[in-house]
Amino acid sequence: MTTDPHPWAGDLEALCAQVWTRLARGVADRHAPARHPVFATVSPEGMPEARTVVLRAADAAAGTLDIHTDLRSAKVAALRTTPWAALHVWDPSAHLQIRIAAAVSILSGDQVAGIWARVPDPSRQSYGSVPDPGQPIAGSLDYLKQPDPAVFAVLRCTAQSIDAVHLGPRHRRARFDRENGWAGQWLAP
Ligand SMILES: Cc1cc2nc3c(=O)[nH]c(=O)nc-3n(C[C@H](O)[C@H](O)[C@H](O)COP(=O)(O)O)c2cc1C
User: H helices of the chain, where?
Assistant: First the structure.
């Protein structure tokens, strides 16, 4: 008899808990799959945009995820027009795809001073390039890194819904919504 490596996959509450466990692992462990979600937004022109980010915080009780970025980046301009994002994680060892739809608040300045104080120096280098991120430059290295707390932003993503797909011997899919207290609903995969 073989034991089920993912017993949580057959129970809605346990599946939702597993999603947050995997997200928290991404924050704590740089080698965990959820360390690098794909973060998708809608450009001011209405085009889909996706990029890799680092997951910096995951609060299961509040249902929030934090991403750090440069206030001048295109994703911030996108979020100013459409304050919604999708996050995607594929966790191969759990056979689990996580998709999250989130409302995003752009936090900066005094709101993030405490977080900036805890950002290690190597990571600070990512916030404050000259010229602004995305500007054309003559050569590939014609830019400077000037860490600047004034352009440091935290994208606080408040999850509104989660779609989880588990690829087991039989595939399973469930949706969880904030508006009904995260009670899950099985879906045909
Ligand atoms: C592994 C990896 C991690 C990244 N982490 C971040 C991040 O945490 N925040 C960020 O703003 N950009 C991060 N980037 C860069 C983005 O993918 C993207 O190139 C950059 O933010 C510009 O995106 P935008 O023009 O859509 O705003 C990361 C890239 C890679 C490859």
Answer: 12-28, 74-81, 113-117, 121-124
